Fold:
Amino acid sequence: MASHRFVMTELDTSGVDEISNVMALPTDDEVPGYQVRDSAHCEESIDLINGVTNESLSFGLLQTAGWGTPSVEEGRLADAVYVVLTDEQRHRRFAKAVILSRPDVSAYFHKPGLDRSGFSLNADVGVLKGRYALGVAVADGDRLEICARPETTVNISPP
Structure:
């Protein structure tokens, strides 16, 4: 999978005031309505974590933003985007993100269909504690594909 880096001109999350709850599910790979699987095909980028671009510390609220798509080459948008938190025992938790406009992604890849590939998430993580790998999953029909990527981590402490 290719690594893509580009400079965002603007990421407007001011209209996003929704707070998602992290879904703690009974088994690792179940999200209602989807067949969950790891994928080497989807592409994504986590651009911000609590306002910074690298490893972050969270106290009760996780804020993240970026973009994700099942296929940059095909210019195909995800039906939905989830942020995935994976603990050290490899248990996954999912939180549904809000879709945002990202014209910079379309411009970078020269794919006009990717304008709505952005996402933003404000999630209540107050019940979690410890170090988590942060990832992205994209919904494509009845499949929820967890994108393969270098690990980004977040340390969560109680509020």
About this structure: The first strand starts at residue 20 and ends at 21. The two ends are 37 Å apart (CA to CA). The domain at 20-157 is CATH 2.60.40.650 (Immunoglobulin-like). The chain has one domain: 20-157.
